[in-house]
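anyone else get weird line breaks when pasting these?? whatever heres mine. first is seq + tokens for prot A
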Amino acid sequence: MKTKFIDNDDGTVTDTRSGRMWMKNDSWQALGRHINWVKSHEFAKEMNEKKFAGYSNWRIPNTTEAKSLYEEGKTNTDKEGCEIRIDPIFPSGCGFTIWTSETRGARSAMGYDFREDYEFWLAKEDEGFPSTVRLVRTLK
């Protein structure tokens, strides 16, 4: 069976099955704080301007992409030391939720939780819920 993730040794991880490249660290690890959905877009813009790992096409994952990181048989720990279900190729100490690109009208956006494999909806400007983003790009 082919290994799902490969560490590219440049701050990125490639998903060999889907053809996606992920930032190894999420925004919590990069910024040291939670961000709302609006700020997750600003984070993506900043990483693209910096050409993180040599690329300028980083984006917020859609729901299917975010869910592809959840792996029932894998164990990692979030920033609070709690168990989450993402491959340990990603560094421990990340957030337990990430924003997705999915929206509902002008005000709500979907997040995804790696502790329990569930989706949730919040206001895009919500500062009260601890969320992060892990940016992705499609290999082409």
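and prot B, same format (seq, then tokens)
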Amino acid sequence: MMGTRPAEDSQVIRIQRITMDHPLYAQEVALRTAVLLKPLGYTIEDYYNMAPGREEKCEHFVAVIDHPTGDTVVGAATLYPPEPSADEQAGKVQQVCVDKQRQGEGIGKNLMIAIEVRAFTELALPGLYCHAQLSAMPFYEKLGWEIGSDIFQEAGIDHKRMQIVTPQP
């Protein structure tokens, strides 16, 4: 468990880092598909095919609540660490999503905090970046991220690169 936060209905949200063989991975994929991919006409297989091997290299973070039927994933995000030989040394945050019924409760913020802690303290990365849809930019800006590019198209949607550098002591 990386952090907890009581939601408005007093449920505790746990942020966990999981692997693809973890029992919660199927729920993570289902949430990412429902919130991010299906509205664009994509399946998870389409996503896997767009960047072969990337899913396996990502670190997976999920926001989990206790539910009478078992742990339930209500948020997800992935961190793609930089390749050792790549020019880009910042990690890439991808596939950030929260169950539509749970948005506005701070779940996305807590996912991002967990990723930043992992990236900056445990992995000692110099920075993080993401390709944010224009509608998501205020979310990242509230977290201290800055705009790092002009508008570009990804999956047929306008995006901008958002970025944050390692906090200086």
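btw re prot B: Residues 3-9 have pLDDT under 50 and may be disordered. The helical segments are 25-37, 44-50, 54-57, 107-122, 137-142.
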